[in-house]
Design brief:
heterotrimer; A mainly alpha (270); B mainly alpha (344); C alpha/beta (255); A: 270 residues; mainly alpha; 2 domains; B: 344 residues; Arp2/3 complex 21 kDa subunit ARPC3; two-stranded antiparallel ribbon
Chain lengths: 270, 344, 255
């Protein structure tokens, strides 16, 4: 399977996870979307040397992964696979900021390393939170939530169309790339000239497809408005879910759990 | 180049989200006013096209390295700025959700960096001017290359500024700029060439498509200005509120403000600090990170690091011990939950 | 019941680039008839189909669908009575879930929510895919996609069903299932196809198009036995009517 195939497989897999049957899957998508955003904002609101205080936040992804029955290894692997930019920018921290900020025994720990680790920790937390949202909810239902939360319909509709045709178009692109690579014996990546003609053809086909879809829509009475029936209500579960987590986030934000526990432990040893 | 959640402060993320949300709302309104029914499926499918095309790598001539399409300019040329901005936003949203490219907080930055400059700056101000009413191959080429370069340069600069304002990364402004701008010059040239070639390809086969989008989108000068002013105001308000509310490390921001304005400390942030310090004392969060540090650093020429305040090593070590223990408990809890679920 | 008829009189059509699609096509299809539309690639089948729902309008000639003459004013009424199933279900299924897709038409007709739900359920049950309601279209097999595509059209309760290559890219079993399904429909049917065995199974009447003109119109069984006509139209006898290669005796026609 080449790159393209793998990527669309990934999307399909997350959507399969979203078809799961846990209590979390059945929550209204709005509750999950809002909680996820609150989580991310809380995590990134810490200062750059925050390390220990961030750790208790793992309770959120861990709890959701466990209760939702999601494959933890897969999600973590996905999160780690995509962090080159964060590492690239973060890696300069240890080089620039060499000030020792605390000691463990005789070893001085420079601030740069602390902030670098902090960046990585934030990265894992925020990225897994987003992945969990999709795998518990499914993209279409996230869009539903967006619509209900007041995002303009023109935008959400095209988001749905876009998502629908990702699968069709990546498939088409993959077939074209495969057809090319089967005839190009030595070159693994294609030259610019090849790419342009490939992309050009794909674009032409895409435009034709858009026309055919429009035709199919007209045949079924399309008048410029997309109508979708949805019956979803905010029930008790949603309120409990969102408010409980918000409470936890606030608590963890302003109360350094790690430090308190550490103090107790250290106290025991002294 | 994608921004990542881990690198930005909530203030920067919030400001950029405000700007992006405003642009999305405005573009969505514009697109619905245009009321071109055909665009409804066309936008979605073109988004899928860009998404698919971005996955195809090609070798960049004379370098041997490989690159891929960005697509912002192609969208703007085929759909006009408003629809193109919405499509670009969709592509980035899906990438953020499924491939964890960037993350949700940084999504506002990413949509702005990759969408705004190509759709609302480079396309109307450069491409449209250069190509004018009569498309020719040469004009398309010149227009696409220049606007792709400009769009990407601005986008890259925006990445740098967002990172610096966030103050999470230590990378100094000038180093980062020197790193980003030349790379994006090269990327911009390639992007421009590819854009021009693909657009010409389509233009030769279906000239009516390229023409239709050009006629369909008059850019109202007045309304655009209003929008920009509105966005700016909203961003300032959001930034102010958020940084007061959330940023416990505003020195990155201030340092940059100091650098850019060359003025002494602004009035408000100082009060902010007092307020913040009080909050900090009361709640005692991050006791190992004294607020005095930022006071120290505010002296001009703070580039050279002010000496760190003495930190009680015991505190930090106990933080570390506690942190490890917490992690252990969290994992244990996860395993427990899963067990129980398996049994039920 | 005059509203299930389709009547074309001397239809002409040329594409903007000058390619001629139709040169004087005339036929009359009456209520409940099943008509196969056959002909080589580029004979004008798809062009003709696009006229039937008013997507293209003839440069000359008239088209009557049921009680309406096809004019821009009657377009909505005509589209309501003609259900069109396109060749590629991926073009027809554009909504996030099967339910949304099937509900798309009824909602555009302005039906009440309860009626929409009923129409959707009924249409999905008719084609036997009620269990797929919540699935996204890209997770369906080719056969399921085709069934859902037909359901999207049935949900609008059309009088006339128009299909473009309904059996293309189906595996043999799905194809057989589809043929059995089509046989149960009471609608007036117009099916453009290269699958002559299917035509033989489902349609009692066949119209042959060649270079934008009707070259034959009559009983399917007779037309598909006319070697000369078939050869002239780049067609060939359906397998069911060919000699069995193993024992070289003519197989019994299926009908």
């Amino acid at each position: 399977m080449n790159n393209i195939g793998k990527n669309s497989f990934d999307i399909g897999y997350l959507d399969t996870l979203a078809a799961g049957d846990s209590s979390l899957h059945h929550l209204d998508p709005r509750a999950k979307l809002i909680t996820t955003c609150a989580f991310i904002i809380t995590v990134v609101s810490f200062d750059k040397y925050a390390l220990a205080v961030l750790i208790p936040f793992f309770i959120y992804p861990v709890a959701l992964i466990s209760i939702g029955g999601l494959p933890a290894e897969y999600l973590l692997k996905k999160a780690f696979l995509v962090c080159p930019f964060a590492v690239l920018v973060g890696i300069f921290n240890p080089l620039v900021d060499r000030e020792i900020i605390f000691h463990i025994g005789a070893i001085g720990i420079p601030g740069g390393w602390v902030s670098f680790l902090s960046i990585l920790l934030r990265f894992v937390l925020t990225v897994t939170a987003a992945l969990i949202l999709v795998s518990l909810t499914g993209f279409n239902r996230v869009c539903e939530a967006l619509l209900q939360l007041g995002v303009p319909k023109a935008f959400v509709v095209q988001l749905l169309f876009f998502y629908r045709y990702i699968f069709v178009l990546t498939d088409e692109a993959e077939r074209m790339v495969r057809a090319r690579s089967l005839r190009a014996f030595n070159a693994s990546a294609m030259g610019l000239r090849n790419f342009i003609s490939l992309a050009g053809h794909l674009l032409l086909r895409t435009l034709d497809r858009a026309e055919r879809i429009y035709r199919a829509m007209c045949c079924r009475g399309f008048d410029g408005h997309i109508r979708i029936i949805r019956s979803s209500k905010i029930r008790c579960q949603e309120v409990v879910f969102a408010s409980a987590w918000l409470f936890v986030f606030v608590l963890l934000r302003f109360f350094n759990v790690s430090l308190k526990i550490g103090d107790v432990i250290m106290g025991l040893f002294q | 180049m994608h921004m990542a959640d881990a690198l930005i402060s909530p203030a920067v993320g919030g400001v950029m989200w405000t700007a992006t949300a405003g642009l999305i709302a405005y573009s969505a309104k514009k697109v619905s006013i245009e009321a071109d029914d055909r665009k409804v499926p066309l936008m979605g499918v073109l988004g899928a096209f860009i998404f698919a095309a971005q996955m195809i790598n090609f070798t960049i001539p004379a370098t041997g390295s490989s690159g891929h399409l960005g697509g912002g300019m192609i969208l703007a040329i085929l759909l006009g700025p408003y629809a193109a901005f919405l499509v670009m936003a969709s592509v980035l949203i899906v990438q953020a959700l499924f491939f964890a490219d960037g993350g949700l907080l940084a999504l506002g930055c990413n949509i702005f960096n990759l969408g705004f400059f190509s759709c609302f700056v480079a396309y109307p101000l450069i491409y449209r001017r250069v190509v004018g009413q009569k498309s020719t191959q040469g004009r398309i080429l010149v227009g696409a290359v220049i606007s792709a370069i400009v769009g990407l340069q601005l986008g890259a600069l925006s990445v740098v500024l967002e990172t610096v304002f966030s103050g999470i990364s230590e990378l100094p402004f000038h180093t980062f700029v020197l790193l980003m701008q030349p790379i994006h010059l090269a990327i911009g040239i390639v992007e421009g060439l590819v854009t021009a070639a693909v657009v010409t390809f389509v233009w030769k086969a279906r000239s009516e498509i390229v023409r239709a989008s050009r006629n369909a989108v008059p850019i109202g000068k007045v309304s655009m200005k209003k929008v920009l002013v509105g966005l700016f105001a909203a961003a300032v308000i959001a930034g102010g509120t958020l940084s007061w509310f959330a940023s416990s490390n505003p020195d990155g921001l201030e340092w940059a403000i100091f650098r850019t304005t060359g003025k002494e400390e602004l009035e408000t942030p100082h009060n902010l600090h007092v307020a913040l310090a009080k909050v900090q004392e009361k709640t005692a969060f991050l006791p190992d990170y004294s607020i005095k540090k930022s006071e120290d650093e505010k002296t001009p020429g703070a580039d050279a690091k002010a000496p760190w305040p003495a930190v009680d090593p015991g505190t930090s070590v106990s933080g570390l011990v506690g942190g490890s223990l917490t992690l252990f408990m969290v994992v244990l809890m996860g395993v427990g939950l899963r067990r129980r679920k398996g049994q039920s | 019941m005059s509203h299930h008829i389709v009547e074309a009189a001397d239809l002409h059509y040329a594409y903007p680039d000058g390619t001629v699609g139709l040169r004087g096509v005339s036929f009359h299809i009456s209520h409940g008839e099943s008509v196969a539309l056959v002909g080589e690639n580029g004979a004008g089948k798809s062009t003709l189909l696009l006229h039937l729902n008013g997507y293209l309008s003839a440069s000359r000639g008239t088209l009557r669908i049921g009680d309406y003459l096809l004019t821009p004013k009657n377009l909505n009424a005509v589209r309501r009575s003609v259900g069109m199933v396109f060749q590629n279900p991926d073009d027809q299924l554009f909504m996030p879930t099967v339910f949304d897709d099937v509900a798309f038409g009824p909602l555009n007709l302005g039906l009440e929510k309860q009626e929409v739900l009923r129409a959707v359920t009924q249409a999905l049950e008719t084609v036997g895919v009620a269990h797929l309601t919540k699935r996204p279209p890209y997770k369906l097999s080719q056969g399921e996609k085709r069934s859902v595509a037909i359901a999207t059209v049935l949900a609008m309760s059309p009088d006339i069903l128009v299909m473009d290559e309904p059996t293309s890219s189906l595996d043999p079993r799905s194809r057989r299932r589809l043929i059995e399904l089509l046989k149960t429909f009471q609608h007036t049917k117009i099916i453009a196809t290269h699958d002559l065995d299917m035509a033989l199974d489902v349609c009692e009447r066949t119209v042959v198009l060649h270079c934008g003109q009707v070259t034959a119109d009559g009983k399917t069984k007779e037309i598909l036995q006319n070697e000369e006509l078939l050869r002239a139209s780049s067609l060939e006898r359906p397998l069911a009517m060919q000699r069995c290669p193993a024992c070289s005796t003519p197989k019994k026609p299926v009908v």
